[in-house]
Amino acid sequence: MKKNILLLFLIVAIGFSFFTCKNDTINHDNDDQGISLVCLGDSLTAGYGASTPGEDDESKSFPAFLQAKVKIPVINAGVSGDTTAQGLSRVDKDVLAKDPGIIIILLGANDVFNLISPSTTKANLQSIIDKVDNGKRKIYLAKFYTEDVARQLFSNYGITNYDFQTTMINRNDEMFSSLASENNVTLIEDIWQGVWGEHMSDEVHPDAAGYKIMADNIFNVLKPYLQANGLLKNYRMLSSLYPGRIGFRFPLVS
Questions:
Q1: How far, in Å, CA of 252 to CA of 132, rounded?
Q2: 156 pLDDT band (50/70/90 cuts)?
Q3: Three-state DSSP class for 208?
Q4: Per-residue pLDDT tens for 116-128?
């Protein structure tokens, strides 16, 4: 009697498992077609100084290292020296033309170097967000500095007054915080952890190892969203191990 009950249980379990796999497993080969991640930025995105001082190397930029972690195309739309205004002028061609599902915006450093006011920088970043936000895309806004980085940069350029440094840092902090809270964007607070002062090609830019760490810092913020939507490189492996339990969801979930 006990053997019969056990056999019946096994038959039901196997049948349920087959039914679940057959009906709930999604063809992941087609799910991510047409989805891409565009990185709009300046030299920090272009990979300036990664291999040779003074030259871009996209193959060792943070988008290239990010590509190794995700199964969708990662497009490097970084142009060295770009201000937020110049980034804005490229949005149609370099971002919207790619119709990305995910966008990372890393701009603003050259505004500081060109003495552009935070209010102008904010207006340009807001215009970029307005252009790319169609209500479906996931948008990330990355700060180009931390407090320590900003103070060091100010000092490098001869701006040593601590109170003035504090005022400028606070203005930029307010700018990024308000842009994040007022729009459908996620703020990436620190791209420099483990990079600044340790893996640098010059006073401002990382070397190849630094860009790899920068990619890790950015990836750690993106990972929950990428994982929820099945966009990680190891997703196919997990899907094969647990058929019917991991599903790609449309529209992309936050």
A1: 16
A2: confident
A3: helix
A4: 999 999 999 999 9
